[in-house]
Amino acid sequence: MSSQPSRLVALLSGPDQRGLVAMVSNWIFERQGNIIHADQHRDQEEGVFFQRIEWAIEPDTDPAEEAEAFGVFGDSLGMRTQVAIAGVKPRVAILVSKADHCFHDLMLRWKAGDHPCDIVLVISNHDDLRAASEQYGVHYEHIPVTKDTKSEAEAQQLSLLKQNGIELVIMARYMQILSSIFLDTFGKPVINIHHSFLPAFAGAKPYHQAHKKGVKLIGATAHYTTADLDQGPIIHQAVAQITHRNSVRDLIRKGRDLEKLTLAQAVSWHLENRILVYENKTVVFD
């Protein structure tokens, strides 16, 4: 009985040129691959080409070697190229504070098999969610953070991320700002959920800001974290309508549902290798 063929997923971006789709398809064809799905986009203003392509390879072909070979091919086209082996689960850490709605939602989706990853570590600046994390079977580390101990705390966090081979960090309402030193040292994606429709109401207490301004919509934004507070490339956003009758408490309650769904969708797209970051924007092949 033959084994199930492995699949590769490639993301390409770079200057548009004639024949890119044909060249990519032909490379896969010549190596006995079978394209399962392909999608592309062209930024008309900037002349930049984006593509996501997924294909099956021969059962006796080494997927790691084939991924490396495609990366070299993509580079030869002048493309920025990322290649992932479908089904390989990245190791994930969650950063969380006291608010638990996004934390539980992520954990339950992971346990249900909706998120193809391995959540192996939870780090918090409070000890409130230790019991819950241990019930999910995930190791929990409590690292308090103060203004005076922030550098030391981030050093401890980075050490844990390295020890556990973490490939993705999810900030599930982690109410601390990650420093540029932390982000540069970690050097891998960090996804944050911000409880407003960015770029509106960045920073602290966005629901209070929204209520004071009398807006008629509130939102949630999932984005990649950068050194600029709440300014990273946006992955996904959602909104809910409100009225003058809604209190700050109402906004917070409605916002929790938005935050959970928005973060879950962003994480899914990332884990399925559907996101290309370009400058400070994203192209999402949904």
Identify the notable features of this structure and list them briefly.
Alpha-Beta Plaits; globular; alpha/beta; Rossmann fold; 8 helices; 3 domains; 286 residues; 33% helix; seven-stranded mixed β-sheet
Specify the oligomeric state.
single chain
Low-confidence sequence ranges: none
First-to-last CA distance: 34 Å
Output the number of helix runs: 8
Structural class: alpha/beta
Give a written overview of the molecule.
With 286 residues, the chain is α/β, with parallel strands linked by helices. The chain has three domains: 7-85, 2-Layer Sandwich (Alpha-Beta Plaits), CATH 3.30.70; 89-188, Rossmann fold, CATH 3.40.50.170; 189-286, Formyl transferase, N-terminal domain (Rossmann fold, 3-Layer(aba) Sandwich), CATH 3.40.50. The protein has helices at 20-30, 63-76, 101-111, 130-135, 150-163, 180-186, 206-213, 248-271, and strands at residues 7-15, 34-43, 48-56, 80-85, 91-96, 118-124, 139-142, 168-171, 190-194, 217-224, 234-241, 275-278, 281-284. The strands form three sheets. A seven-stranded mixed sheet has the order 7-6-5-8-9-10-11. Strand 2 (34-43) and strand 3 (48-56) form a beta hairpin. Helix 3 (101-111) packs parallel to helix 8 (248-271). The model has no long low-confidence stretch (mean pLDDT 93).
Short description:
Helices cover 33% and strands 29% of the residues.
Chart the SSEs and their pairings:
Layout (H helix, E strand, L loop, with lengths): L6 E9 L4 H11 L3 E10 L4 E9 L6 H14 L3 E6 L5 E6 L4 H11 L6 E7 L5 H6 L3 E4 L7 H14 L4 E4 L8 H7 L3 E5 L11 H8 L3 E8 L9 E8 L6 H24 L3 E4 L2 E4 L2
Parallel strand pairs: 5-6, 5-8, 6-7, 8-9
Antiparallel strand pairs: 1-3, 1-4, 2-3, 9-10, 10-11, 12-13
Helix pairs in contact: 3-8
